[in-house]
# Entry
Amino acid sequence: MSRFAHLKRSRQVWLIQGVIIIMGLLVAIAANFPSNANAAPERKEPQTNDSCLACHGQPGMSLKLESGEYLPLTIDPDHFSKSIHGKSEIGCVQCHAEITAFPHPNRTARSLRDVSLQFYTSCKGCHVEQYEKTLDSVHQRAIAGGNYKAAVCTDCHNPHSQTRITDPVTGEILPDARLHIPQTCARCHNAIYDKYKESVHGSVLTDEGNRDVPTCIDCHGVHNIPDPTTNAFRLSSPQICSKCHSNTEIMSKYGIPTDVVNTYVADFHGTTVTLFEKRSPDQVTNKPVCFDCHGIHNIKNPRDPQYGIAMKENLLLTCQRCHPNAKANFPDAWMSHYIPSREHFALVYYVNLFYKILIPTVIGGMLIFVISDSIRRIIEHRKGTTHK
Amino acid sequence: MSKSLRTYVRFALTQRVEHLAMLLSFTLLGITGLTQKYPTNDISEFLVNLFRGIENIRGIHHASAVILMLVTVYHLITTGYKIFVERRQMSILPSFQDIHNAWQAFLYNIGLSKSRPQMGRYSFEEKTEYWALVWGVIIMGLTGFLMWNPIASTQILPGEFIPAAKAAHGAEAVLAVLAIFVWHMYGVHLKRFNKAMWTGRLTEEEMLHEHPLELADIKAGITGRVLNPVTLRKRQMVFIPIAGILTVVMLAGIYGFVNGEKTAITTIPPQPSPIAIYVPQTPTPIPTVIPTVSVVAPDLLTWDSYISPLLQQKCSACHGTMAGLSFMSYADAIRGSTKGPVILPGDGINSKIYIVQSVGGQLGQLNADELAKLKEWIDLGAPEK
# Structure
């Protein structure tokens, strides 16, 4: 009896406390997070980060899941306070909205992957733009197709330790953050990362901290990452490369010509690809795009003695992938992005020069005769002395 | 009305058909070729859409090229017949007289000469056009071959010949199309609409104005002589086999031209990237937290020797300063929670700490061994020391 009375009393206390807290919380939410007011869960007791960290700040906390994996439950308070969420004083319960009291509700996640899959949608509450973009991504399509390994928000951005990655004013990615992008993707795409870090782009990013070179997202996009194996991606890929390679500001630093795209489009392969892309962007084509010859992630300096395709033997091997009967002279049929000059592809240069002289001479001569003849005939016609 | 109604044959039906075939192939070649030369131009874009893709444009270009090649073979053989069998005058050959005529025509046009030049069967304008076409067909044929068969060509020639051929092919096309617009359009359509290529005939008056020397020859009976049938047959017996062989050789040449090489046009499909896409890093960058090693149970079970370190490790994360229950000291532990004691010395099985831990699912969950030791300790009276 006395035990029940005790419980009843304590319930009343809780209830009063709860009402006060909810009202207080609603005021706080309305003041601080107007756009997320709808998403804010109800609270039964105060859930400050301090009260969460009182337990979860202790080292060594973990939970064994059904899969046998351990779910780490410790959040290093120092680490968290340095993160962008910590600095912005985001409450734990904004994401962990199901936790309203202690003991916490039972977890339904049976594996670490389940945990991520259950939680990542809570990012939507604040990052709705990015979240919606991801719905178009190759990763989300993979998940929809049953491949649960595909990345969700938290696989790339650890919400407890993620530091600021974009400039708050311009929204551009901070230079330092750029350096770490490939390592983020490498968590799942390590084989590709291994190729990338050896490439002309990746090596200078990792070794020299060069900020001009593309990271993964410069070509693949962020959040709404398209499937790079589609025909549409293939056909539009030259535009990806041309973003930087047509930019004189960047290219002049490295002495790389910016007419690489024009010279590509001017040749058979590039013409076809450009026209295909214009007419039906998802058309199947085996005409090479930039990465078919230069490599996808393992893009080398063309003058690299071992792999560079400015080396004729390497270029021949590249040509032979599509033209198996090609022999040693064949690679020169492609002008290697040169604009013909006296030094490079002189024959082509002189052919062009020849016609530059021949066409005006012939057509000009014809015009002179035709004009003189027509004037003469008009005069004769007026005089009435015409032949006819 | 002294005008004569007599007409003269200018072009035989076969020649007119030949002209029509060439006209069609040239026009298609020009349209589809310039589309390829200036692919990003708006008109080209319109044409690519009209023909439903650049591949069709190329297909039509190649088909038209074959027609033009066949017309060329036909022209060579029939011209050969006229020269070697009929022994006609090679009136289309250029001569110094043509240069003279052209110069005189120009002087007349600008008023420096009193009369137009008198011309024979083919005027210098017509000869210009004919030989320009011959030059064009040779250039386009050779450069077209190089582009159509780049792999075979580069077995003999330097690779540079292919882009050079492309440059020449495109520039020559511009020249040819412009020449047609300027020279041909003016010469036979604007100056006077000359229907001879369609009707095959010119009136006596037209002949008098344009080909007075030929008219004179015809009237004098120099041209249009009937050949002796016996001589004709003899010459045919020689010509026909030779022409037959040449025709076969040329047709085989065209066949080779068109079909000699496939991979320049239809390349083998691109190979899929051999690289594995999903290759997670090991070890996982977010390291799995392994629980700390269990406290080893001593022989003598007391708060100090075992229970305190055990509860410190497993429970004090929460039950240190908060959650209404503290295991920080022996006194705190025995006092229990805000709701009452959790340790009933001597009665392990009814102690709340044991009940809660037996249910499981606690964040600081004791394992079976530890739980047994805990119960044993409570049963022993929960000694401090």
Chain B has two domains: 7-259, 303-379. The mean pLDDT of chain B is 85.
